[in-house]
Design goal:
The structure is a single chain. The chain is α+β, with helices and mostly antiparallel strands. Among the domains are: 96 residues, Uridine Diphospho-n-acetylenolpyruvylglucosamine Reductase, domain 2, CATH 3.30.43; 125 residues, 2-Layer Sandwich (Uridine Diphospho-n-acetylenolpyruvylglucosamine Reductase, domain 3), CATH 3.30.465; 115 residues, Alpha-Beta Plaits; 48 residues. Helices cover 36% and strands 16% of the residues. It has a 7-stranded antiparallel beta sheet with strand order 15-12-14-13-17-18-16, with helices on both faces. Strands 5-6-10-8-9 form a 5-stranded antiparallel beta sheet. A hairpin with a 6-residue loop joins strand 17 and strand 18. Helix 13 runs antiparallel to helix 16 and helix 21 crosses helix 22. It is globular.
Length: 571
C-alpha cells in the first residue's frame, strides 16, 4: 500500500480577485506569498488544539466582491471644483477605490474586511500631480471645511489612514514619486514623498549611471515594509529601519522638509545643524498628516559598500546573557552593527521551527548546554569601510563569547536577510482559518527591559493557547525596543480589540513607550495623553490650531489631537 499523502492546508497562491475585500487587506505584492512551514503547521495544530479538518475550509478568505453603496456626500459644486484642480483622470468616486485607500494593514482592518465589514471611506480619492496641486487642494478644502487625508504607501498598522469624517484622500504615490536631486557634496537626496523604498534605494545604488555621480549610495533605511512603503511615510510616522542601529531612525535622516498647510507653506532650513531655537521641523516629523502635507524631503544618504558587509549569528544560553551582551555592544564605543537582533527563548524556538534547524546543529547546541526554550538567537551584520567592518565584527564576537554565546557563522543572518520582507505574507494564511497574528512594539531603557519583557509576556501568556514571540532589533546606548508578536484565536473582532488594549496597558504600566517605530494613528491615540502628559499634548494642540484652525487635516482621532476626554484611556 502507498503511504497516505501528508495533508497540507490549501494555502492561498492566487492573487486576490480584482475588486474583492482581500484585494484591499492583502499585504504587499498581490502575487507575493510565504506560507507556514510543515513544522509551523504542526506547531499551530498543537498550540490551538486543531486537526487537519480545521484547515480544510477558509471561513475568512475575503475573496468575494466588495459590496458597498455609499455615494459621495460632497456637493456637486465641490466635486466639480476639485476635479477642475487635478483633472477628471485624477479623481475617483467609485466605492472600491475609496475603500481601498481608506485602509492600511492593521490586523483589525484585515479581520473586519475578511468578514465583510467596511468602515468609513472618503468621499473622493484624489491624485495630486505636484505640490501646486496640493496647495490648491488644501486651500480649497480649508475654505470649504472639507477633511483631507493623505495616503502614501498604505502600509500603516495604526489605523492611520481611516477617513473618519469623509472628505478627500490624497494619494501621494501616483505622481509625486520622483527622485529630484542627489547632492554629492552634501551627501543628501531630495525626493517627493510618494517614492517607494525600492525605487529610492535603486536610484541611490545606481547613482553613477543615473546622476553621473562619483560614488554609489544607500539610504540606510530598510523597514520590514520597505518594498511597499514610501520615504514620506517613513518621515511622518517616525519610522525605523532594520539597519537603524548604525544608520539611525527616519527622524535622524531628515535634513529638510517642505510642507503645505491650510494657513501657508514652508520649508525648513537644510543645514547639518543650527542653534536657531526650537525646530519646527522636529514637530513635523511624526505629525502623521495632522498639521499639513509633506511635499518634498531632503534625506541624508551614505556611501554604499556591499562588498564589505559582514554577517554574523550567535546563540546565547539565555535571555539575560543576550540582553547584557547587547547592552555592552551598544555602549562599547567601538562602532555599531547595522542590523542587530536578539530573539527571546520562545521566538528562538518557534523561529527555528519555521526555518528548520538541522538535527546535527540542534544536537550540537544541546550538547553545549543551549537548551530549547532557554537559548536565544542573535543575528546581524556590519556595514561600512572594510577596516571598520572587520573591527566591529571582531569586537562583537569577543563580547558575545564573554557572555557565553557560541558563534554560528554568517548563514543564519544571510538567510534572514533573504526573507525579511516576506514574513508578513503569512498573516493572511493564518487569518483564512481564524488564527490571528499581530504585533506591538515599544521603546525601553536598559534598566526597564527585563521587567517589561517579563510582565507583557505574562499578560499575553495568561490567555490560554496564545503564542508570544519577542525580539529587540533597534539598539541605542540608552536602550532598545521590544517587539511583541502574538498569535491567538479570538471569538470576535471585539474580543481581539479588548486583548490588544490589555497588552498596550501592560506596556505602558511597565516602562515601555507607546510606540517605537509604527507611529500612533488612531489605534494608539486613546493612550497618547496618558503617555505624554497634558502639557506636551497642549503644545501639540496649539501647533495644530495654528496650522489647521478648521481641523481639516486628518481629523477623527489621529494622534489623539481631537479626541474628547471620555475617549482617552486612563493609566
Amino acid at each position: 500500500m502507498k503511504p497516505e499523502k501528508k495533508f497540507r492546508p490549501a494555502w492561498s497562491n492566487e492573487p486576490p480577485p480584482p475588486g474583492s475585500y482581500r484585494a484591499i487587506f492583502k499585504f504587499g505584492d498581490p502575487t507575493g506569498f510565504k506560507h507556514p512551514s510543515d513544522n509551523w503547521y504542526a506547531m499551530l495544530k498543537e498550540v490551538f488544539a486543531l486537526g487537519d479538518d480545521d484547515f480544510r475550509t477558509k471561513p475568512f478568505e475575503g475573496r468575494s466582491p466588495l459590496e458597498l453603496v455609499r455615494p459621495p456626500r460632497l456637493k456637486e459644486r465641490q466635486i466639480s471644483d476639485l476635479t477642475a484642480i487635478v483633472g477628471p483622470e485624477n479623481i475617483a468616486a467609485d466605492e472600491y477605490t475609496r475603500a481601498r485607500h481608506a485602509y492600511g494593514k492593521t490586523t483589525e482592518e484585515m479581520m473586519e474586511l475578511s468578514r465583510g465589514v467596511v468602515r468609513e471611506i472618503a468621499d473622493l480619492v484624489v491624485h495630486p500631480r505636484h505640490k501646486d496641486d496640493v496647495r490648491r487642494l488644501v486651500a480649497y478644502c480649508h475654505r470649504e471645511n472639507i477633511p483631507v487625508y493623505a495616503f502614501s504607501g498604505g502600509s500603516s498598522v495604526t489605523l492611520g489612514l481611516r477617513p473618519v469624517r469623509g472628505g478627500i484622500t490624497l494619494v501621494m504615490n501616483t505622481h509625486m514619486n520622483r527622485f529630484l536631486e542627489l547632492n554629492e557634496d552634501n551627501q543628501t537626496a531630495r525626493v517627493q514623498p510618494g517614492i517607494f523604498g525600492p525605487a529610492y534605494e535603486k536610484a541611490l545604488n545606481r547613482a553613477p549611471e543615473r546622476f553621473r555621480a562619483g560614488r554609489r549610495y544607500t539610504g540606510g533605511h530598510f523597514p520590514q515594509s520597505f518594498e511597499h512603503s514610501t520615504v514620506g511615510g517613513w518621515v511622518v510616522t517616525l519610522g525605523s529601519g532594520q539597519a537603524s542601529t548604525y544608520y539611525g531612525d527616519a527622524a535622524d535622516l531628515v535634513v529638510s522638509q517642505e510642507y503645505v498647510t491650510p494657513v501657508g507653506d514652508f520649508k525648513t532650513l537644510a543645514y547639518p545643524a543650527t542653534a536657531t531655537g526650537p525646530k519646527v521641523g522636529d514637530l513635523m516629523k511624526g505629525a502623521e498628516g495632522t498639521f499639513g502635507i509633506l511635499v518634498e524631503v531632503t534625506m541624508r544618504v551614505f556611501r554604499h559598500m556591499p562588498a564589505n558587509q559582514r554577517h554574523f549569528s550567535f546563540m546565547f544560553p539565555n535571555w539575560q546573557a543576550a540582553v547584557e551582551a547587547s547592552r555592552e555592544i551598544a555602549q562599547g564605543e567601538f562602532g555599531r552593527p547595522a542590523v542587530y537582533r536578539i530573539s527571546d527563548p520562545e521566538e528562538t524556538d518557534r523561529g527555528l521551527k519555521l526555518y528548520g534547524i538541522p538535527k546535527l546543529v540542534d544536537r550540537f547546541l544541546q550538547k553545549r548546554g543551549f537548551e530549547p526554550m532557554a537559548r536565544c538567537l542573535c543575528l546581524g551584520n556590519v556595514e561600512g569601510d572594510r577596516d571598520y567592518t572587520r573591527l566591529v565584527k571582531r569586537k562583537i564576537r569577543r563580547v558575545a563569547r564573554h557572555y557565553g554565546a557560541v558563534y554560528l557563522g554568517p548563514y543564519g543572518s544571510k538567510k534572514w536577510a533573504q526573507t525579511r520582507y516576506h514574513e508578513p505574507y503569512m498573516r493572511e494564511d493564518l487569518n483564512d482559518f481564524g488564527i490571528t497574528i499581530d504585533t506591538l512594539e515599544a521603546g525601553v531603557t536598559w534598566d526597564r527591559l527585563m521587567t517589561l519583557h517579563q510582565e507583557v509576556r505574562a499578560y499575553i501568556k495568561a490567555r490560554p493557547r496564545t503564542i508570544c514571540m519577542t525580539h529587540a532589533s533597534h539598539f541605542y546606548p540608552q536602550g532598545t525596543n521590544l517587539y511583541f508578536i502574538f498569535i491567538g484565536r479570538f471569538e470576535s473582532v471585539a474580543d481581539y480589540r479588548s486583548f490588544q488594549a490589555g497588552i498596550i496597558d501592560s506596556i505602558l504600566a511597565h516602562g515601555g513607550s507607546l510606540s517605537h517605530h509604527h507611529g500612533i494613528g488612531r489605534l494608539l491615540a486613546p493612550w497618547i495623553e496618558a503617555h505624554l502628559g497634558s502639557e506636551q499634548m497642549a503644545v501639540l494642540r496649539a501647533v495644530k490650531q495654528h496650522f489647521d484652525p478648521h481641523g481639516i487635516m486628518n481629523p477623527g482621532g489621529q494622534l489623539g489631537l481631537d479626541l474628547e476626554a471620555h475617549e482617552m484611556r486612563t493609566p
